[in-house]
Amino acid sequence: MARLTEDAEGVYVIAVTPFTDAGGLDLASIDRMVDFYEGAGATGLTVLGQLGEAPKLTAAESRTVVERVLKRLDGRLPVVVGVSAPGLAPMRELSDAVMGEGAAGVMVAPPWTLRTDDQVYAFYRSVGEALGDTPFVLQDYPLTTNVQIAAAAIERIVRDVSTCVMLKHEDWPGLAKIAALRRASETGGMRRISILCGNGGLFLPEEMARGADGAMTGFGFPEMMVGVVNAHAKGEVERAQDIFDAYLPLARYEQQQGIGLAVRKYVLAKRGVIASAHLRKPGAALSPADIADVERLLERQTRRLAEIGA
C-alpha cells in the first residue's frame, strides 16, 4: 500500500470497533463494516480513533483490529491508524507494527498537558523524530484534548517536520483556521498539506469552501460525506448543500456528547453493518426515548432523500 501523502483527499471514514453483546471483538462484523465503507465510496479508512473506542482495547486487540481491516481491504484503500499514547515509546511501537502490516500512515493527537504553542511544536517535533519516516496526521481536536493549537503553530510544525502530511481539523469553530493555513501555503509560508475535517461532518460544506480536501470522520451514513465531497469537487455546490441538509438532523443528533457513539452504532446495527450496537464500558446506552428520536429522524431523512433524488 502506498504511503499517505500531502495530496490525500476524499473521505477517510473513522471506523467503529464492533463488539459482540458480551463485549468481545466481533471479527465478522469488522469484515462487513469494511465492505460497507468501501461500497459507500470511502477513499480510505481510519481505525483506532477516539470514536473507535481505542482506549478500551488491549494492545493485542488493537493489533488484531488493524490486521483484520488491512487483510479485508487487501490494499484497495489506504488505512490510517490512531497511535496516540502518553509516551513516545508505545506510540513508536504501535506505529512500527501497523506500518509493517501495510498501513498508509498514523494519526497522533497531542497529550492534554500541552499548554503553549512552543510545547505543541516541541511535542510534534519529537513525534517526527520518534516515528522516523512514517507519515503522520496531526489531530487537532481541542474539544476532547483540551489543547488549543494556533494556525501559526501548525505552520511551524509543517515547515520543520516533513513527515506531517495531513491535518485532521476538528477545531470548533475553526473555519478561519482552514483559511489561514491555505493562505500560508499559497504565499509560501508552509508547504501545502492535506486537510481533512471531523466533527461528524457538521460543517463539511463550509469547510470544503474554505479549502479542505475532504472529511475524516464518522457517521451512520458515510454516504453523506462522500456525496458532499464529490459534489463539491465537481463544482456542484448547491447539490452538495442539498445532500448535506437531508442528513443534517441525524448528524446533529449523533454529535451529542455522551450518547453520540451509541447513536452511530445503533444506526449501523440497524443497517446490518455490525451485528451489535454494544459499547464497551464505560459507554452510554440509548434510552427508549433516544431510540424513538433516532427512528423518527431516520424516517424523515428517508423522505427527504427521496425528494432530492439522492
Average pLDDT, rounded to a whole number, is 96
Biggest sheet: strands, sense, closure? 8 strands, parallel, barrel
The second-level CATH architecture is: Alpha-Beta Barrel
Radius of gyration: 19 Å
CATH homologous superfamily, by name?
Aldolase class I
Kindly state the percentage of residues in helix.
40-55%
Structural class computed from helices and strand pairing: alpha/beta
CATH topology: TIM Barrel
Low-confidence stretches: none
State the total count of DSSP E strands: 8
- The secondary-structure element order is EHEHEHEHEHHEHEHEHHHH
Strand content: 5-15%
Q: Output the strand order for the largest sheet.
A: 1-2-3-4-5-6-7-8
Any chance you could write out the topology, listing elements then pairs?
Layout: E1 10-14, H1 27-39, E2 44-47, H2 59-73, E3 79-82, H3 88-101, E4 105-108, H4 117-131, E5 136-140, H5 142-145, H6 151-160, E6 164-169, H7 175-186, E7 194-197, H8 204-209, E8 214-215, H9 223-233, H10 237-254, H11 260-270, H12 288-308
Parallel strand pairs: 1-2, 1-8, 2-3, 3-4, 4-5, 5-6, 6-7, 7-8
Helix pairs in contact: 1-2, 2-3, 3-4, 4-6, 6-7, 9-10, 10-12
Features:
alpha/beta, eight-stranded parallel β-barrel, 12 helices, TIM Barrel, 310 residues
Folded structure, characterized:
- Keywords: Lyase.
- The protein is α/β, with parallel strands linked by helices and 310 residues long.
- It has helices spanning 27-39, 59-73, 88-101, 117-131, 142-145, 151-160, 175-186, 204-209, 223-233, 237-254, 260-270, 288-308; strands spanning 10-14, 44-47, 79-82, 105-108, 136-140, 164-169, 194-197, 214-215.
- It has an 8-stranded parallel barrel, surrounded by 5 helices.
- 46% of the residues are buried.
